[in-house]
Amino acid sequence: MVVVLMVAEKPSLARSLAEILSKKQCRRRKSDCSACDVYEFEGIFPPGGGGVRVTFKMTSVCGHVMSLDFQPQYNKWEQIDPVDLFDAETMKKESMPNLRIPHFLRNEGKGVDYLVLWLDCDKEGENICFEA
Question: Record's CDD domains (predicted)?
Answer without folding.
Answer: TOPRIM_TopoIA_TopoIII
